[in-house]
Structure formats: C-alpha cells, structure tokens
Amino acid sequence: MKKVAGLSVAMAAVLFMACDKKENSYNFAQIIYPESYGSVLYADEVSDSLRFATTFDWSVSVDEPWMRAVSNELSGTVPDGFYMVKRIDLGFDANTTGANRTGRVRFYADGKMLETTYTQLHYLDVERPVRMNDKFVLQDSARQESDSLEFCTYSNDWTLSFKDGVPAWVRLKDGAPVSGRAGEYTVHYLLDENTVPAERTAVLELTSRGVTTEILIKQSGAKGSEKK
Predict the structure, then answer these.
(1) Of 22, 39, 158, 160, whose CB neighbour count within 10 A is largest?
(2) With 90 as the cut, is the pLDDT of residue 93 above it?
(3) Cα 203 → chain centroid
(4) CA pair distance 162, 199, nearest whole angstrom
(5) Which distant-in-sequence residues (6+ apart) come within 8 Å of 94 by Cβ?
C-alpha cells in the first residue's frame, strides 16, 4: 500500500488520479498551488512558485521568455510506495509592456500533463482608491482638507511624486513616504478648499521596477459659486 497516510491532497483543483483496487493502493499527481484559477501578480511582482504532490516521476517546463524557473531541479523520480511534495520557485520580468500577460507552467507525470497559469497585470498594487474603468481616481469634495492613498510595492526602489510638479492646491503631508523598501504604505495628502465652480485635478505617479501607475486626484468645484 502506498505510504500516503496524513497527506492532505484532497483539494480538487487540477487533479488526475489512477486507482489500482487489486493492490489496495492509488497513485496521483496534483498541482497544489496555484489553484485552478491560476496566480495573479502585479507588474512589479517578480517571484512566485509552483507546488505539487505526486507519486509518479515528474518534470516541469516553463516556456514564456519573461518567466523562468529559479529552482535548478525541473524533474525528479519518486520511489515506489512513496509520494513527493515539491516546490518550484519561479521568477518573472517586471511587466513594462502596458498590457496584462499570461504565461503557463506545465507539469508532467505518468504520461499526462497538467498546467497552471500566471497572469501578470500591467499596473501596480494600488489598494486605495479601487481601480475602476481602468483608472485609479481619488474623488475629494471642494471643502475636503485631507485624504490618503494606500499601495503595496514589491521592490526596494519605488518612488511617488506629482506628475509635472506639485500643484498649488494639493501637497503631500510632511513626512509622507515618497520612496522606500518593498511593503505596504499609506500616504496622506492635504488640499486647499476649492472656491471656484470648476473641478480641478492632479496626478500622482507611483513607480516601481520601471512601471509607472497614475493615481488621479479630483477635487470637486464649489457648489453655488456660479450663482452670483
């Protein structure tokens, strides 16, 4: 009987299994991570992994030029009566193409092939504001005095600055981070009251690993200003 006691491989995603009832044993090969919908990465996110479990001899292939296997071991054997749980580390180029892209990693075992996908978005991980209609927009009222944005970067060389210089009516709060190491950040900014009816806008540029994502700040015009 196969020595699989305690193996938690009941996840149903991308699974094939061969049963041998005569020997009261079973063989399997399964991708554990990513699950069936694949993995999604941001444009400056350059590492991920493939994890699988199998009782068969196996191999893995990575075909996209912007993806690579960091692990040297891309094939292996599994002795009879045992199973293997394996992790293959993957590396990615930063996505500077301006469009989302998807690559596939193929896992071979027992003459069969499983594959999973890695989709790399073309923009950075801005958590506030939420991306809508392909844009990140912070909407502020005419009298609003402060607001903030939140983001996560995956490199140690990110920067944040106003496009075309700092406007007269909006500025980052003193001490707000404008560069730093990889991680999560909240950046506060201050606004002057808008006393005219016209809406006004400013653009912040978040840059990481050569990818720039724009965050639009929109301040509404003053209500009733046009009625004089």
Answers:
(1) 158
(2) yes
(3) 23
(4) 18
(5) 43, 44, 46, 155, 209, 210, 211
Could you give the CA distance from residue 132 to residue 117 in angstroms, rounded to a whole number?
24
135 φ/ψ sector (left φ>0, alpha ψ -120 to 50, else beta): beta
The 10s digit of each residue's pLDDT in 36-71 is 889 999 999 999 999 999 999 999 999 899 999 998
Provide the token pair at 17.
């299994």
This prediction has a pTM of 0.85
What tens digit of pLDDT does each residue of 134-151 get? 999 999 999 999 999 999
10 Å CB burial of residue 226 (0-12, 13-18, 19+) is exposed
Q: Is 196 exposed, middle or buried (0-12, 13-18, 19+ CB in 10 A)?
A: exposed
Residue with tokens 């950075």: 124
Residue 129 contacts residue 136 (beta carbons within 8 Å): yes
pLDDT tier at 100, thresholds 50, 70, 90: very high
Give the residue from 147, 152, 225 showing the smallest Cα distance to 188.
147
